[in-house]
Each structure stands twice: as structure tokens, then as C-alpha cells.
Amino acid sequence: MTLDIVQMVLVTVLAAATPLILAAIGELVAERAGVLNLGVEGMMIFGAAVSFAVAMQTGSTLLGALGGAGAGLGLAALFGLLTVGLAANQVASGLSLTILGLGLSGLVGANYVGIKRDPAPQLAIPGLTDLPGIGRLLFGQDAFVYAAVALVAAVSWFLWRTRAGLTLRAIGDDPIATHALGLKVRRVRFLSVLFGGACAGLGGAYLALAYTPFWSPGMTAGRGWIALALVVFATWRPLRVAAGALLFGGATVLQLHAQAAGLGLPGQLLSALPYLATVLALVLLSLGGRQGGSPAPAALGRVFTPSR
Amino acid sequence: MRLDLVPRIRRSAVLDILAPALAFVAAVMVGGVAVAALGVSPGAAFVTYFVTPLSDVWSLQEIALKAAPLALIATGLAFCYRADLWNIGAEGQFVVGGLAGGWVGVATHGSGGSVWILPAMLAAGALAGAAYALIPAVLKVRLGVSEILTSLMLVYVAQLLLDYMVRGPLRDPAGYNFPQSVGFEAAARLPYLMEGETLHAGVLIALAAVGLGTFVLARTLFGFEVRLVGASPRAARFAGFSDARLTLAVFAISGGAAGLAGIVEVAGRIGQLQPEISPGYGFTAIIVAFLGRLSPPGILVAALVIALTTIGGEGAQIDLKLPLDLTRAFQGLLLGLVLGADVFARYHVRLVPGGPVSRTAP
């Protein structure tokens, strides 16, 4: 019995962590290639709006998810054109992307406010899903959750076990040297940005199609920014992104329960916890990791223009 | 086919002005297509957005009132961004400034109306905004924590703090449980510039800040330091300028300006504390700062343009049923295009047929 309660809590923690994992794992790849895209929040919410609109129009959750990923990818292409193609400032371009994405999401979602959809279907394997204690957690999730887990594994493998992954990390550390070696710095960076955008869009789609499942303006509520912080917190390592996202998911669930239980604390304080926790996590990280240099990709945030 | 960027030896003064203007034209054209897609005549929308607001006294005042906080915040942000430091939490500093200054207004309510109340409110707002901005600055200087993320996270915290204070300690006891403070007395309000109109003295404060910002950036050693650190950090270090001191200074300036804008809004237009005191001025000011090319005079022009589109957007919502999100999307697109257009002022841009760059290297 208690085992089932523990499982229920873990299921909700995983659900709260999934959008963060999706958005952060994509941003991690872009940052490993040296591109800081602050537009995650914008790509995420645009993905959420488009995915919901597509799913409502077609009746298909899968098409909705693809639409969300595509929306994030589209915005990311704009960002890549600006920062990789035209060498524009990455911080400012990312902010413009967030503002643009928020506006576009409102336009796309305007007709869908207040409509609820059935949540994305969850896996059900007779026998396995009903296993007490772990069945629902391991075999009863929706496809987004499994996709997030698979993406973490795939990105981890790609970055540290393949030649292309090594190239990508090298470009993030020293674009000038890798360019001199004949590697295609701008192409790799652009593709990394696109991957990040698709992941952020998918994270938004999860919110609109599985987590809530409805569309409301501003529904990402800063999750894109928390995903950015997670990448720093995880010192640019995929498995730690997943671990950090679960921690944050846990904090979110804890906050919801505390609010429901009415501990006498102001609700606003509890709502502020995820943001305060993010600041605290960044502080603790830099306190802990002061020796041995920064774990960040050395050329992160710096524009690259090839010399001839 | 590849894109070649060759740095210009000297920045072209003509292109420096032309680039943002062209970006604006391009954004208007894209906006026109979007408006047409929403089933409204682009011509009618253009008139509603950019012409109607200029045609009567009331909306001209509204433009000035909206441009004032934007120009004030963006002038402060220009110091940060010039020095290559990224305070993106001006919205939170605005809120904290409004809260602290408004608190003074609430605390002095019924005290008889001394002439010192308003200056004390303005000072409290600016100081609180500066102090709030110093949190990410100190974390950056001391621990190397990214100022981008901490300053942004503190925006949410500030908004929730204001919400708590207005619903709790600062709520008007005689206000039928509405989440708002008492209405300020006349001594705690910014005076109107003309009898019976909406324009208040906050506009003058913003103009003074723009003037002061122009002078400090262009004519003082500190302004030189800010510009040098942004343009060439190595040179600045050789010149003996301290990174840490400059970081703290520009954050305090930008936070102080945002906090001042916050209390100007509270003591000016609103006249009491409410759960929400900003329609996103702190974020819009980032667009304004870049649209104005990080120079205070340019920022003043940009603030007026953005205020015009915002007022126009409100008009379009009423007259043409165009959603307000269209304005936000337009502003985001405009910022992106301005940043893209900047490339043409900094580089010779060439589309070259042929393979990757490395093969043509000598």
C-alpha cells in the first residue's frame, strides 16, 4: 500500500521533470556546440500552442507532438540564421526569440483557450503495468516520457561515443582551431541549434498534450528558463540534466502538496520556491566547482565568423 | 554557396542609422502579411497602429507615459549591455522599486502630507531596485554565477513578493478585501504637468535620466570605462579598470533606473499598490535598448516608437479585433531584425558561390 503511494509520488515527479528534461537536453547540445540560445522559453511555449492546435485540428496526438517540435525547430532556425549565419549577439537574439515565441503562441492558441483534450495515451502492458510498486512507473507512462529518457541516453552516447559528437564538443570549445582543421563550424552549430529547438518544442508539446492537457497563455511559466539553468547546474552533462530535472520535478510536486496541505506558509513563498531553488542550485554549484576551471564549453556564447 | 562576413574597418555612420530603420520597415511588412492572414486590411491596420495614436492629445500623452518607463529602464540597461553584462531582470527590479516606494506612500498615509514624502518614495524605489539588481551582480563577482539566469529568476520572486505584500501586510484594511493598498494622498503622487490631463512629472524624470545617461556614457571616465570593457576587455584590464567594481556599478545603475521607473509608475499613473504594476516594461525595455543601439538618445526615439506600437496595438484590439499578442510578436520580430540588420553595419556581407571557406584559405 505504502509502496503504491511512493510510486504515485514518483510518477508525478517524473511527469513534472519530463518537460524540463526535453528542453534542457536540446539546449545542452546547442551549448556544447558553443551556442547559447536564451530563446528556450519562447520555443517551448510556441511548441505548446502549435502542438495543441495541430492535435485539435487533426485529432492526432502524434501529429500534435510533431507540430510542436516543428514549431520549436522553426523558431530555432530563425535564431540560427541570426547568430550562426549573421554573427548577431546570442544573448539579445535569444531574448528576441522568447518575446517572439510568446507573442506567436498567443496568436496560435487564441482559439483554443479553455478547451480540454484527452491526455496523451499511456502505455498499458497487461501484467507488467499492473505490477505493484513499479508497474505504473516503469510501464505506464506516455510516449513523451519514454522519448525524454531515450533522448538523454542517445545524446549521452552521441556526445561521448561518436566521432561527430567529439567534433561538436570541439567546436564548442574552440571554433577557430576546428575551423582551421577544416571542420564545418557553422553547419554543426546551426544543426545543434535546430536540434535544441525541436527538443524545446517537444517539451512544450508535452505540457499541452499530456501534462495539463490544455492550452493556456503563458503556460510554460518559466520552465524554459529553468531548463537553461539546469544545463549549467548539470555542468553540461546529459545524465546530470536528467537527475537535476528530477530534483526540480520533486521540488515542484513538494510545493504543490505543501500548498494543498496549507502549512501556514504564504502560497506566494511556495510558488517562488522553484525559482529560488534555481538560484540556490547555481550558487551551490559554483561553490562546489571552484577548482579545476569552468566546466562550460570554452567558446559558449561567442559568435564565430570564419576568417579567409 | 556560402555567406562571407568581412569586418568593416570603420563602422559606417549612415548604416548605423539606416540599419535599424530598415529593420523597422521589414518588421512592418511582415506584420502587414500577418495582419492580412488574420483577415484585416493591412492598410487599415497600419493607420490604426501608427497614425491614429498620433492624432489626438489623449493618446499622445499615453505614448509619452508609456515611453517614459521604457526609456528610463533602457537607459540603465544600456550601461550593462555596453559592458557586455546581461541584466535581464529589470522587470523584477521595476516591481521591487515600485513596492518599496509604494510602501513609503502607504506608511506615510494620513501623516499630514509633508513635501518630503514624494522624494523619499522615489529614493526608496531607486535604492530598492539597485539593491535587488546587486544580488545577481554580487553572485557573479563573488562566485561566478551566471547573471543572466539569476537576474531572470528574481523577476518571478519579485512578482510573487509584491503579490504577497498587496494581499497581506499592505492591503487597505478598509478596502473590502480587494487586493490593493490604500490610494496615495496627493503628497505621495507625482504632480500632473497640466490641469485636467494625464501627463505627469514622471516624463520629466525619464527625460532627465536620458540626458544624464548620454552625458555619463559619452563624457566621463566611467562612461569610457563601460564602453572600453565592452569593446575590448583585455585592453580595459591593461588600463587597470576593475571588472568587479564595474559589474557592481552597472548593475546598480540599471537596477536603480528600473526601480525608479517602478515607483514613477506607482506614484504616477496607478496611485496605489496592486498585485500587478507592470505590463512587462522591464522586458520591453530590453527591445528598446537594442533598438536604440544602446545609446540614450537612440533609446528615447526607440521608446517612443515602441510606445506608439503598444498604444496602436490597444487601438487595433478594440477597433479591428486584432489580438494584443500580435504587438508582442511584432516587437520580438523587430528586435531580431534589428540585431540581424546590425550585421550589415559591422560587416561587408557577401554571398559567395562555392565550397566551404577553408578551401579558399591561403
Keywords:
heterodimer, A: 308 residues, mainly alpha, ABC transporter involved in vitamin B12 uptake, BtuC, 12 helices, 71% helix, B: two-stranded antiparallel sheet, globular, ABC_transp_permease (chain A), transmembrane (chain A)
Q: H/E element string of chain A?
A: HHHHHHHHHHHH
Give the radius of gyration of chain B: 22 Å
Low-confidence blocks of residues of chain B: 357-362
Q: Poorly predicted ranges of chain A (pLDDT <50, ≥5 residues)?
A: none
User: How much of the sequence of chain B is in beta strands?
Assistant: under 5%
Largest interface: A-B, 56 and 58 residues
Per DSSP, what share of the residues of chain A sits in E-state strands of 2 or more residues? under 5%
**Mean pLDDT across every amino acid position of chain B:** 88
The total count of strands of chain B amounts to 2
State the major sheet of chain A.
none
Cα separation of the termini of chain A: 69 Å
Helix content of chain A: over 70%
- Number of extended strands of chain A: 0
Helicity range of the residues of chain B?
Answer: 55-70%
Q: Which CATH-level-2 architecture of chain A?
A: Orthogonal Bundle
Cα separation of the termini of chain B: 19 Å
Which CATH C-level class of chain A is it?
Answer: Mainly Alpha
Transmembrane segments (chain B): 21-51, 63-81, 93-110, 116-135, 147-166, 199-222, 243-263, 283-308
Pfam families (chain B): BPD_transp_2
InterPro entries (chain B): ABC_transp_permease
Membrane topology (chain B): Multi-pass membrane protein
Short description:
The complex is a heterodimer of chains A (308) and B (362). Chain A has 308 residues and is an all-alpha fold.
